């Protein structure tokens, strides 16, 4: 198990401005979280590194940002209206509600011993209405996956970007599920963000591409710092598969509550495109020039969660050590994921020349990467603060800097310090970030 508890992570996130409980001043809204000033940076960095890896660094991918609200027929076609359900049971005495799958005995309430109702299907999609009239004709759903926005735009992207198969479409965006048992901080929530790829291939090549994407996605988490011991692949059993998939492998992470899904890679076959052809009447097949025939592509889908990834990166990077009798907490985040890249700290805050020099350096660095300036405590405390939020580089300006125009750069994990001319600080940090990436 990863040594850190979820409570420790939740409390660090609150204390250091990463993640707050939503609507806290009203007592909070259950299992809903707000990303604070540093949390939004971490989350943006996770998304940026994913986008960079799967879109910019490949020549077979396009990006997309589809609307959350979609034509309601989408969800009939996708099978979500019929199949995106959980069986629920209610206790007739205490009125508590359970997912039938979570109970070993489906007849007795585990809380009060009361009798349970027989299971009924509960659809996880949030419903709302468009326009001022709340009738059945105006019903729309908050999307439960971003994937369908990609399927309905498949032909638009293919045509506009003059693509040939195989190629993929990547999208990042919010999804919503009325989960019965949300919990474990940002692991399972009702509003969350997904990073999804739909990779379109010729039938018959799907297994090969499936294996390719499983490997790619596993390696992505390792590349951005997650220890391989804390990652594993778990193929789905037949009875676990979603209604659209013939195979699925989860990338799992050893979270504080145990091994749990970080990302799923599924072979969705031609299920979705064929359903949309049926429901919309639009031809979504492609022409195979070599064989002079048309076919409906198969789809390999690597589907990741932004929030779950952020949680895994936080948990995995948490370190606690004792240095010269003092507790030191570090978020050893990959430098490209770290919310703040550099902190400029004046060694003596009552020396205006030192303060001015440090502020000027921070202003210069800020135009290149996220830099902070802090003079609100002694240097030991300032270092500890930056370690706890994962800032990879701290730069101190001291009395000697006034004479030799050199400053000290301290690296977070090794605590190694080097002295550099002030005008070389930017390129030094940029080189370090480049090497890390
Ligand atoms: N399009 C396929 C799909 O949505 P999924 O396994 O239901 O598949 C994919 O979801 C990923 O989305 C999960 O691996 C997880 O990272 C994230 N995810 C799903 N439900 C979530 C929830 N309630 N809260 C946070 N993340 C969630």
Fill in the keyword field for this structure.
13 helices, alpha+beta, 31% helix, seven-stranded mixed beta sheet, five-stranded mixed beta sheet, 23 strands, BirA Bifunctional Protein, domain 2, Rossmann fold, 437 residues, globular
The multimeric state of the shown protein is: single chain
Category from helices, strands and their pairing: alpha+beta
CATH class of the largest domain equals Alpha Beta
Measured by DSSP, the beta-strand proportion falls in: 25-35%
Short characterization:
The protein has 437 residues and is of the alpha+beta class. Helix content is 31%, strand content 29%.
What does this structure look like?
With 437 residues, the chain is α+β, with helices and mostly antiparallel strands. It folds into two domains: 6-69 and 144-314, BirA Bifunctional Protein, domain 2; 340-436, Rossmann fold, CATH 3.40.50. The chain contains 13 helices and 23 strands. The strands form seven sheets. A seven-stranded mixed β-sheet has the order 3-9-10-16-13-12-11. α2 (37-56) crosses α9 (306-317). The radius of gyration is 25 Å and the shape is globular. The mean pLDDT is 96. The chain binds glycyl-adenosine-5'-phosphate. Glycyl-adenosine-5'-phosphate (GAP) is lined by residues 145, 147, 177, 179, 188-189, 192, 194, 196, 261-264, 301, 303-305, 307-308.
């Amino acid at each position: 198990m990863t040594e850190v508890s979820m409570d420790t992570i939740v409390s660090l996130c609150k204390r250091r401005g990463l993640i707050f409980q939503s609507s806290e001043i009203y007592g909070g809204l259950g299992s809903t979280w707000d990303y604070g000033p540093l949390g939004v940076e971490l989350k943006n960095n996770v998304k940026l590194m994913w986008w960079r890896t799967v879109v910019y660094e490949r020549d077979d991918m396009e990006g997309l940002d589809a609307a959350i609200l979609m034509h309601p027929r989408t969800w009939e076609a996708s099978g979500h209206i019929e199949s995106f359900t959980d069986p629920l049971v209610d206790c007739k005495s205490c009125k508590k509600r359970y997912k039938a799958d979570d109970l070993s005995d489906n007849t007795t309430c585990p809380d009060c011993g009361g009798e349970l109702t027989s299971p009924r299907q509960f659809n996880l999609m949030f419903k709302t209405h468009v326009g001022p009239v709340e009738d059945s004709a105006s019903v729309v759903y908050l999307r439960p996956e971003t994937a369908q926005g990609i399927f309905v735009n498949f032909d638009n992207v293919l045509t506009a970007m003059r693509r040939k198969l195989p190629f993929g479409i990547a999208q990042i965006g919010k999804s919503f599920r009325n989960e019965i048992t949300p919990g474990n901080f940002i692991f399972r929530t009702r509003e969350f963000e997904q990073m999804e790829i739909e990779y379109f291939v010729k039938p018959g090549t799907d297994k090969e591409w499936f294996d390719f994407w499983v490997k790619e996605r596993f390696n992505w988490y390792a590349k951005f710092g997650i220890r391989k011991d804390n990652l594993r692949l778990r193929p789905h059993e037949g009875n676990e598969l979603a209604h659209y998939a013939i195979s699925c492998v989860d990338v799992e992470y050893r979270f504080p509550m145990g091994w749990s899904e970080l990302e799923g890679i599924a072979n969705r076959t031609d299920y979705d495109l064929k359903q949309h052809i049926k429901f919309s009447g639009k031809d979504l097949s492609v022409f195979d020039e070599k064989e002079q025939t048309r076919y409906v592509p198969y789809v390999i889908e690597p589907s990741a969660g932004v929030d779950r990834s952020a949680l895994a990166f936080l948990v995995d990077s948490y370190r606690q050590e004792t240095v010269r009798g003092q507790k030191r907490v570090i978020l050893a985040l990959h430098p490209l994921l770290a919310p703040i890249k550099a902190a400029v700290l004046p060694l003596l805050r009552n020396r205006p020349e030192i303060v001015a020099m440090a502020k000027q350096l921070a202003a210069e660095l800020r135009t290149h990467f996220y830099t902070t300036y802090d003079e609100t405590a002694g240097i030991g405390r300032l270092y500890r603060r930056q370690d706890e939020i994962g800032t990879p580089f701290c730069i101190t300006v001291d009395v000697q800097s006034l004479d030799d125009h050199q400053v000290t750069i301290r690296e977070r994990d090794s605590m190694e310090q080097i002295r550099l001319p002030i005008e070389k600080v930017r390129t030094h940090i940029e080189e370090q970030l480049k090497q890390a990436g």
